[in-house]
Design a protein that fits this description.
The structure holds two protein chains of two kinds. By secondary structure, chain A is of the alpha+beta class. In chain A, helix 7 (316-327) crosses helix 9. The longest helix of chain A is centred in the middle third of the chain and has 20 residues, at 212-231. Chain A has 15 helices and 15 strands. The radius of gyration of chain A is 30 Å and the shape is elongated. Chain A has helices at 52-64, 156-172, 212-231, 277-285, 291-302, 306-312, 316-327, 332-350, 361-372, 378-390, 395-401, 411-423, 425-432, 439-449, 456-469; strands spanning 2-13, 50-51, 68-69, 76-79, 89-92, 99-104, 112-121, 125-129, 132-136, 143-149, 185-195, 204-209, 240-244, 249-252, 265-266. Chain B has a domain at 1-42: Orthogonal Bundle (Histone, subunit A), CATH 1.10.20. Chain B has helices spanning 3-12, 19-40, 71-77, and strands at 60-61, 81-82, 85-89. Classes of the chains: A alpha+beta, B mainly alpha. The structure holds zinc ion.
Chain lengths: 471, 92
C-alpha cells in the first residue's frame, strides 16, 4: 500500500487600500506602472513603512486558524534575482512570522495543522513576448499573506474541500475576495508518496494551479506518477513542477539556479512588530463564526439538510440574511426554500448578489409573512419578490399597486368562476362527463383573469362546486 | 574562502568574475569572514539575540492612498521601455 502526503501553500491578497510598505494604491488597473513609487520600485535610499490594515487583516486570519502569535514578528529579506521584483529581494517573514502552529478542524476531514502564516509583498507582473519581458509593477508590493499547512492531507479531494472552505473563511473574515481565476487567492501544493508506514516521501512542489479543480487534478496526477515510480523501484526527484492544464499533467521546470538559496536575513529597514494587548483584543472582536462551524450549527439548530445548510452558509451575507429572516418570525422552511428558490433565481437573472440587490431582510419577511397568513398566494409572492429584488420598492405598495391581495371574501372570485364556466360550456360538459383533466385549464384561466389573486389551492374546489351547482 | 564557493556566491549575486578578480576577491572575502569568526568568539551568554535596536513602539502607517508624483519620471528613467512597460530581456 502506498500512502500520500499533501501540504498546501496558500497565498491570499489582502483587501487593503494601499500596498503593504508604501502608500501606492492596491488596485488592479490596465494602465501599467501607474501605481508605483520609489519604495515599491526598489529605489535606493527609501524607507518602507508597514501598513497597519494589512497587519490587522493578517492577524485576523492567524487568529481564525488558532495560530500561536509570536510576541515579536520579524521581517526578513528573501533574496532572489528575477525582474518581477525590482529590489532583488522580497520582504517576507521567515524565522518569526506573525502566526505559527495553527490548527483547523473541519467536519469530515483530518485535522489540518498550520505550519505558519506570514505577511509578505507580492511581485510585479511580467508578460513574456519573444525575446522581451514586459514588466508592470502595479502589483509589486501589494500585501500577500502566505499560509503553509503541514502535509496533513491524504487525498486530493480533502485538499480540494479544504481550499473551498478556506476560501469561504477568508471571505467571511472580509480579508480577501478569494478569486482564484484573478489570482487574488493562489495555491501551490506539495506532495509526496511512500510505502505505508515509511513516513513522508521525497517532496514535489506543483505550481500554476488556478482553480480548485486544478488542485485536485494535479494532485491526482502527481500521486499516480510518483506511486508508479516508487513501485518500479525508481526514486522521485525533489523538484518544482508546473501544472499544464491543456495536457492535464505536471511538467518539470527547467532547472533553476544552483539551489534555492534565498539568503534570508532580517530586514534592517523595518523594525519588528509586537502586537499589543489592545490590538489583539481588536483582532478577537473581529472574529466571526467560521463557515463550516456555521453550517454544522444550521443543520443542528434549524434541522436543515446538508445541501440547504451548504447553500445558506456559502456567503456570510446569505447566512446572516437567513438567520435574521427566521428571527423576523417566518418559518425556517419558508426562509430556506424561498432563498434557495425564487430569490436565488431572481438574483441570478439580475446578475446580482444578495447584498447588492434591493432586497432587505425586512422586505423579504414582509412578503413571506403575508404568504404564510394566506393574504397573498405563492404566485403573487413570486411576483413581488422579483420586483423588490430589482427595484427599490416597498412590498406593500407593490402588492397594492398590482392588486395582488387575495380577495378575502370569495364573492369576487365566485363571480369570475361563474363567468368562466358560462364561457367554456364545452369544457364544463367534459368535466361533467367525468373527465377531470380540463379542470387544470379552468384553474389556469381563473388565475389569469384574477391577476393571480385567486388562491390556486382553493380554486379547484370552487370550480367543482360551481359545476355541480349547475345541475 | 575556496574559489568554487566564491563562484557560487558570485552567480547568486549575478556577478561575472574573471580568474584574476576571483583570486583577489577570494582573499578579500576570506578576510571578511575572519572578522565574523572573531565576533563569533565573543561570549554572549545571557544576551538575547536581537535584529534591531529597540524603538519601543510599533512603526506602522495608516492605510491611506498617496499617489506618487514620481511614477511617470521613473518610467521615463527606465533604461528600456515600451510605452508604459519597462522591458527586460526574456530570461527563464
Ligand atoms: Zn509604491
Amino acid at each position: 500500500m502506498i500512502e500520500s502526503f499533501i501540504g498546501l501553500e496558500i497565498h491570499i491578497q489582502l483587501l487593503t487600500k494601499t500596498k503593504v510598505f508604501c502608500n501606492c494604491k492596491n488596485e488592479f488597473t490596465h494602465v501599467p506602472n501607474s501605481h508605483v513609487c520609489p519604495v515599491c520600485m526598489g529605489y535606493p535610499g527609501v524607507l518602507p513603512v508597514l501598513n497597519e490594515e494589512a497587519v490587522r487583516k493578517a492577524y485576523i486570519v492567524c487568529r481564525a486558524m488558532n495560530c500561536h502569535l509570536n510576541e515579536k514578528a520579524v521581517f526578513d529579506r528573501k533574496n532572489y534575482f528575477y525582474p518581477d521584483m525590482p529590489k532583488n529581494y522580497q520582504i517576507s517573514q521567515f524565522n518569526s512570522p506573525f502566526g505559527v502552529k495553527g490548527l483547523i478542524e473541519m467536519d469530515g476531514m483530518p485535522k489540518v495543522r498550520i505550519h505558519d502564516a506570514h505577511l509578505e509583498e507580492d511581485a510585479g507582473k511580467l508578460v513574456h513576448e519573444g525575446m522581451t519581458s514586459y514588466c508592470d509593477y502595479n502589483r509589486a508590493g501589494t500585501p500577500l499573506l502566505e499560509i503553509v499547512t503541514e502535509p496533513d492531507f491524504k487525498k486530493p479531494e480533502e485538499a480540494e474541500l479544504f481550499m473551498q472552505n478556506f476560501r469561504k473563511m477568508v471571505r467571511y473574515l472580509g480579508v480577501c475576495d478569494g478569486n482564484m481565476e484573478e489570482g487574488s487567492m493562489r495555491c501551490d501544493v506539495n506532495v509526496s508518496v511512500n510505502f505505508e508506514g515509511k513516513g513522508l516521501g521525497r517532496k514535489v512542489e506543483v505550481k500554476n494551479l488556478n482553480s480548485f479543480r486544478h488542485v485536485k487534478l494535479a494532485l491526482q496526477y502527481e500521486i499516480q506518477r510518483q506511486s508508479r515510480m516508487i513501485t518500479a523501484g525508481e526514486s522521485v526527484v525533489q523538484e518544482t513542477r508546473l501544472w499544464n492544464d491543456e495536457k492535464k499533467r505536471t511538467e518539470g521546470m527547467r532547472s533553476k539556479e544552483n539551489a534555492n538559496d534565498y539568503r534570508y536575513f532580517p530586514e534592517p529597514d523595518l523594525p519588528p512588530y509586537c502586537p499589543t494587548k489592545e490590538f489583539l483584543a481588536q483582532i478577537d472582536a473581529a472574529q466571526v463564526e467560521l463557515p463550516w462551524v456555521r453550517k454544522k450549527r444550521f443543520i443542528d439548530e434549524y434541522g436543515l439538510n446538508e445541501d440547504g445548510a451548504e447553500f445558506l452558509t456559502e456567503e456570510k451575507d446569505k447566512a446572516d440574511f437567513f438567520e435574521n429572516a427566521v428571527k423576523g418570525g417566518i418559518s425556517v422552511a419558508n426562509a430556506a426554500s424561498w432563498m434557495r428558490g425564487e430569490v436565488a433565481k431572481d438574483l441570478n437573472k439580475a446578475k446580482k448578489s444578495l447584498c447588492d440587490s434591493f432586497l432587505t431582510v425586512e422586505k423579504f419577511v414582509t412578503v413571506i409573512k403575508l404568504l404564510e397568513a394566506e393574504k397573498i398566494n405563492a404566485q403573487a409572492a413570486k411576483k413581488v419578490m422579483d420586483i423588490i429584488i430589482n427595484e427599490d420598492a416597498d412590498p406593500m405598495q407593490v402588492i397594492e399597486k398590482n392588486n395582488l391581495m387575495q380577495t378575502a371574501d370569495s364573492g369576487e372570485v365566485e363571480a369570475m368562476v361563474e363567468k368562466l364556466l358560462a364561457e367554456n360550456t364545452k369544457v364544463v360538459a367534459q368535466i361533467k362527463g367525468g373527465d377531470q383533466k380540463p379542470i387544470g385549464f379552468l384553474i389556469g384561466q381563473l388565475m389569469k383573469v384574477s391577476g393571480g389573486k385567486a388562491d390556486p389551492k382553493k380554486a379547484r374546489e370552487l370550480i367543482l362546486n360551481k359545476i355541480s351547482q349547475l345541475g | 574562502m575556496q574559489k568554487d564557493e566564491l563562484y557560487i556566491t558570485a552567480s547568486l549575486a549575478r556577478l561575472e568574475l574573471t580568474e584574476k578578480e576571483a583570486d583577489t576577491l577570494s582573499q578579500a572575502v576570506s578576510q571578511m569572514i575572519e572578522y565574523f569568526s572573531m565576533m563569533e568568539k565573543i561570549d554572549v551568554t545571557g544576551l538575547e539575540p536581537t535584529t534591531h535596536v529597540s524603538i519601543g513602539e510599533n512603526r506602522v502607517r495608516k492605510d491611506e492612498v498617496i499617489e506618487s508624483s514620481l511614477a511617470e519620471r521613473m518610467i521615463e528613467a527606465a533604461p528600456e521601455r515600451d510605452e508604459r512597460f519597462i522591458t527586460v530581456p526574456h530570461i527563464l
